Amino acid sequence: MASLLLRRHRKASAFGISRILQGDMELIRLPMEMNFEAFLSVGIRMRRYSSGQSGSNFDFTDLTCPHMWYPTARRKKRKVFLHVGPTNSGKTYHALKRLESSASGIYCGPLRLLAWEVAKRMNKAKVPCDLITGQERDEVDGARHKAVTVEMADVASHYHCAVIDEIQMLGCKARGFSFTRALLGIAADELHLCGDVAAVPLIQEMLKVTDDHVEVQSYERLSPLVPLKVPLGSFSNIKTGDCIVTFSRQKIYKFKMGESIFALWFMGHCHQRLGQDRLQAMMFNDETSEFDVLVASDAIGMGLNLNISRIIFSSMKKFDGAEMRELTVPEIKQIGGRAGRYGSKFPVGEVTCLDANDLPLLHSSLAAPSPILEQAGLLPSFDLLYMYSRLHPNCGFYQILEHFLENAKLSENYFISNCEDILKVAAVVDQLPLGMHDKYLFCVR
Ligand SMILES: Nc1ncnc2c1ncn2[C@@H]1O[C@H](COP(=O)(O)OP(=O)(O)OP(=O)(O)O)[C@@H](O)[C@H]1O
């Protein structure tokens, strides 16, 4: 635990510095820099201060207008394009074409591997593009484009074009708040959102107050996806192009033992050494490599384009941090949709399960629409938390955060992301000799 924390500490400090270099007004402001100007980033709150109210009368826990936390974006009338449709329908392709032809831009994706794929594609097309993730910063001379993981989205700079991929992850319990921040905060003339149609009503509702122009563009799947009537049954039935999806690291290793039959490669969720996931994806996609079967975690569902012919669910249940539960319709569709990607080696995708008992859930889920997204994740910005802490000078960070989250007021479009996990981290980092900003970063990253 101690070594984990030390590693995380170093990462958070490096991250803090990178945010400062990036000029992210919401996250970089260190406590000692807090001044009157800092209130500007909490928008409408300024008015109450300038009308003479004292800080103690002010309710910093009021999170009902999160769009006002991003003054740079609010000064623009953004054109927002919602690219929606099933998996493998070309949503991201079209958004990226737009990004590529824009004078400046940013791509925000849910995975490091996707950010890397986009940076590679842009640089290959002679559009210099930086790669920025929680772990790396690869800057290219003269770049006016960035490909980032969504947590690293920059809400202080101006862009001609921005893309947020897998936007339905607004509703994700753990990471939804980062998508909300990018959606409300990126100051781009054109903002392209790619994802499931189930996110449309919520996004339209969230953007009613931003004065943005919103347009929906619908897509159809580009190649067929066939749910099979027979299960895999036995690993002796595995063939080239198969991808076994599993939900635990132990199982990934267990399946890897099948190496005597086929060369297996695996893609873990977040346990990869830097660059290892890239190597694995490249080798799997490389027809000349010896790796032709993939064992992957459910992270594969977040928009990856790999040469997969058949997706095999090893189980339809996963432990989500709190309980063992059945996979949801969107999860099954997202993961299943990795098979038979347009332009890949396999023009038709197939999906099945290891166990015959799981087939009914697979079939019904692939045929069902995703449930409409009701709420987006939200967390208080550092500014708000810091100002709140000034009212409680004798409380530690954990107490401040706990109190804040308990008292937070939200509009019906939002929920507070992952409180329990965040408070657990806050309890640990509060014991460390860190500034409040670093402690905040530990909790939200
Ligand atoms: N018009 C096109 N010409 C060439 N290739 C295309 C075209 N449209 C899509 N593709 C390719 O098809 C694959 C799927 O497209 P894309 O990733 O844009 O789909 P998506 O709808 O965003 O998928 P998902 O929701 O599953 O992430 C990609 O490899 C993409 O490059």
UniProtKB/TrEMBL annotation:
Which Pfam family, giving just one, matches this sequence?
DEXQc_Suv3
Q: Which reaction does it catalyse?
A: ATP + H2O = ADP + phosphate + H(+)
- GO CC aspect terms: mitochondrial degradosome; mitochondrial matrix
List the residue ranges forming a coiled coil, or say none: none
What's its EC?
3.6.4.13
One MF term from GO for this chain? ATP binding
Compartments annotated for it: namely: Mitochondrion matrix
Q: Name one GO biological process term.
A: mitochondrial RNA 3'-end processing
All copies of domain Helicase C-terminal, residue ranges? 250-343
Q: Mind telling me which CDD domains this protein's record contains?
A: DEXQc_Suv3
SUPFAM superfamilies per record:
P-loop containing nucleoside triphosphate hydrolases
Domain of life per record: Eukaryota
The alphabetized UniProt keywords are:
ATP-binding, Helicase, Hydrolase, Mitochondrion, Nucleotide-binding, Transit peptide
Signal peptide segment: none
Subunit arrangement?
Answer: Homodimer; in free form. Component of the mitochondrial degradosome (mtEXO) complex which is a heteropentamer containing 2 copies of SUPV3L1 and 3 copies of PNPT1.
Give the protein family.
Belongs to the DExH box helicase family.
- Name of this chain's protein: RNA helicase
